[in-house]
Amino acid sequence: MRVTAKQVAEKAGVSMATVSRVINRNGYVDASVRARIEKVMAEVGYVPNRTAKNLATGRTRTVGLIITSLQSPYFIRLTEGIQDVLENKGYHLLLCNTKFNTKIELENLQLLREGMLDGVITSTGNLTHEVMLGLVRQNYPMVFINRVFDELKDEATRAGFVMGDLHYAGLNVTRYLLEQGHRNIAVLYGAANSTSNQFRLEGMSQAYAALGLRVRPELLRCVANPPDPSSGLNDKEGAWAYSETLELLQTHPEVTAILVFYHPMLTGIMQALREVGRNVPDSVSLIGFDDFPLAPYLDPPLTVMDQPVYEIGRAAARLLVHKIEDATLRVAEPIVMKPEFIIRRSCAPVANRYPALAAE
Amino acid sequence: MRVTAKQVAEKAGVSMATVSRVINRNGYVDASVRARIEKVMAEVGYVPNRTAKNLATGRTRTVGLIITSLQSPYFIRLTEGIQDVLENKGYHLLLCNTKFNTKIELENLQLLREGMLDGVITSTGNLTHEVMLGLVRQNYPMVFINRVFDELKDEATRAGFVMGDLHYAGLNVTRYLLEQGHRNIAVLYGAANSTSNQFRLEGMSQAYAALGLRVRPELLRCVANPPDPSSGLNDKEGAWAYSETLELLQTHPEVTAILVFYHPMLTGIMQALREVGRNVPDSVSLIGFDDFPLAPYLDPPLTVMDQPVYEIGRAAARLLVHKIEDATLRVAEPIVMKPEFIIRRSCAPVANRYPALAAE
DNA sequence: ATGAAAGCGCTAACAA
DNA sequence: TTGTTAGCGCTTTCAT
Questions:
Q1: Rounded CA separation B192/B188 (Å)
Q2: Does domain A166-307+342-357 sit in CATH 3.30.465.10?
Q3: Beta bridge partners of residue A341, listed in sequence order
């Protein structure tokens, strides 16, 4: 049978309170008494019951992380950053992978209300915007990645915000392509409703506008509604991207550059390109968002706009833990991190494609 | 303030027991009474407290998953399989990423003893062998991936086992290379102590033995002890593999094939190969273990021995949930899944390298 | 069909 | 420095 603190107390001839003090190393306990209790605990193999402690303290030292996919190196790296900090602070991570399913996301947010989670970090689209807003206003400790709530502008809540400078990222990537002569730049992204994508797209528009040009909306493709979201297929997201890319290239052969906002789509895009004989980078330039270990080893090595994802994760976790442990903390200003452009070999000037034209 | 079931009961003019019955939809409750209680719950915004429920029921509907890295597509896919099943059964996932740190692993195992976890799935090396064994003998619900306990052979415990046929995998990959004329096959693996590696190595030996040959132990390299395990460096594991590979190629230039048991090492291996001018596959053949979405897009496309990782994950989660929900369940037989060899372009016969020799 | 009441195992304020 | 005691909020027999 399980041994309880009460039994330890009886056996050691002390009160439960004293046992509790030695378990948690707080309060004053006489050295000899402590030794006696510890001896008893070791003898009977006492293990404290965590759920009882959770109930008594009203805390669980568990944090929820909500992401939309495990296939994206972005989320992996983010999770690593978060977990490294949490572990260091003695917190645990409950992982919720929504796979773009709002229902799953809501179920996990419910755990926050139910007191099973001390706080939550979210890095998802904004389908659950209203729910999140409600939670924030009820002062649950929450940290949002790459997301803003205009409604909260003048409110002092416990919510925290960490972001990459995605506007800057979109702006600079686009400027780079425009300078290389690209005018028909397609974008493939993963979730229509995410603020991350909006930021990048805004940056993109700005780069166009600087040249008196405009984004062509028909070249913006979202793959948020997968053909078969429930299949166990490996590389499911690549499969969606594949058909979308094929369609794009067919209807818009004038595309000379593709921006990939969501890396799980990369395989499908590359396969489609290959099948229709559009070589990278000579026929089409390709740029990914966020770096990942294998990027330099792809064929061709992928040029990417990187974000310090690991640091973003760390910052988010630190912020959340602060907010959990200090209920009065109010940090309204988002933490913003600068991206870095990493040029490899998946982009080429349009002139390479039409050398004759360029020579004129 | 938080609303409790007690307050709901008072407001609805019933007892807590009845409220509990409507929350959990069990026991008999008169339709009109149920409606009244539900109305009150909605009005006051009642949310049940999960930690209290956990304490009262002695269960948390939370399962721990212990893996050693998030950088390996193997663990990612495994996690997806596990999570898809858990979510479907109403369980949550507490993720423990040990990064080969035994201390972290032990801390998470402790959560099982402390009643915070209903069960645990482990897919790690066997540094914690004794601890695991103790837990199993105390009848905690546990499922092990790619691991066996000879000690448990004749005991009826609650432990479950799911494995890929790694012996078969090692055997066939090696046979394939031997048939292509390779005799100096190096192996780079991630954790010296893992049974998965042992199984593969045994298969390998068998393939050698069939030709009257033997494995050359000096060509087996483990990268379990990283130069800097705590750095936040992206692609840390690739960095370890890089230096190990460099050293290997320098001391053993006769190597014509490399088997990679742990994919996060791939980047470092490829870079080292590139730097010393050993072209894949003409100068060195490369085979990876387990497929992943980007494998066909590497330069060159990677030949791999794949495992049905997603299915392994699903099977493990199903088994664990069974064991949690039926304390009498005793399934000693491991579930074994067959691997599949996927040939792409990272292997070439040795004859390609020494055509003159082959022509003799 | 509903209620009373005894836990579940620990924490923490207060008293001593 | 230690003990007393009243919770934490829910579940679950056992009556009724």
A1: 10
A2: no
A3: A305
Closest Cα partner for A266 from B238, B234, B73, B295?
Answer: B295
* Closest alpha carbon to B295 in A235, A261, A240, A284: A235
Look at strands B160-164 and A285-289 and give their pairing.
unpaired
| C-alpha distance from A177 to closest chain B C-alpha (Å) | 23
- Pick the residue from chain A with its C-alpha nearest to B78: A70
Give exposure, A46-71, as e/b (b: 16+ Cβ within 10 Å). bebbbbbbbbeeebbbbbbbbbbbbb
Q: Which CATH superfamily is domain A5-48 in?
A: lambda repressor-like DNA-binding domains (1.10.260.40)
And the tokens for A76? 């992996």
CA of A275 to nearest chain B CA: how many angstroms apart?
13
Q: What are phi and psi of A300, to 5 degrees?
A: -85, 165
Q: Which amino acid is at A20?
A: S
DSSP string, A280-320: TTTT-EEEEES--TTGGGBSSPPEEEE--HHHHHHHHHHHH
Residue ranges per structural domain of chain B: 5-48, 60-165+309-338, 166-307+342-357
Q: What's the CA gap between A291 and A305, in Å, rounded?
A: 7
A52/B contact by beta carbon, under 8 A: yes
Residue reference for tokens 């448990």? B152
In Å, what is the separation between the CA of A51 and the C1' of C9?
A: 8
Please name the residue of chain A whose CA is at the shortest distance from the CA of residue B68: A80
Q: Strand ranges (DSSP E) for chain B?
A: 62-67, 92-97, 119-122, 142-145, 160-164, 185-189, 220-222, 257-260, 285-289, 303-306, 335-337, 340-342
Chain B nearest-CA distance from A72, in A, is: 10
Which class does domain B60-165+309-338 fall in?
A: alpha beta
Count CB atoms within 10 A of the CB of residue A32.
Answer: 8
Residue with tokens 């040990």, as numbered in its chain: B98
| CA separation for the pair B192, A326 (Å, rounded) | 43
First to last CA, chain B: 88
Same fold, B60-165+309-338 and B166-307+342-357: yes
A-chain residues near B114 (CB < 8 A)? 47-51
Q: Which two tokens stand for residue B245?
A: 């590979």
Longest dimension (CA), chain A: 97
CA of B115 to C1' of C15 (A): 33
Q: Across chain B, which distance is largest between two alpha carbons, in Å?
A: 97
Measured CA to CA, the distance from residue B94 to residue A87 in angstroms comes to 12
Instruction: Enter the tokens of residue B198.
Output: 């042992």
Per-residue pLDDT of chain B (360 residues; tens, 9 = 90+): 689 999 998 889 998 999 889 988 887 888 888 999 999 999 999 999 999 999 999 999 999 999 999 999 999 999 999 999 999 999 999 999 999 899 999 999 999 999 999 999 999 888 899 999 999 999 999 999 999 999 998 888 999 999 999 999 999 999 999 999 999 999 999 887 789 999 999 999 999 999 999 999 999 998 766 656 556 678 888 998 999 999 999 999 999 999 999 999 999 999 999 999 999 999 999 999 999 999 999 999 999 999 999 999 999 999 999 999 998 988 878 999 999 999 999 999 997 776 555 444
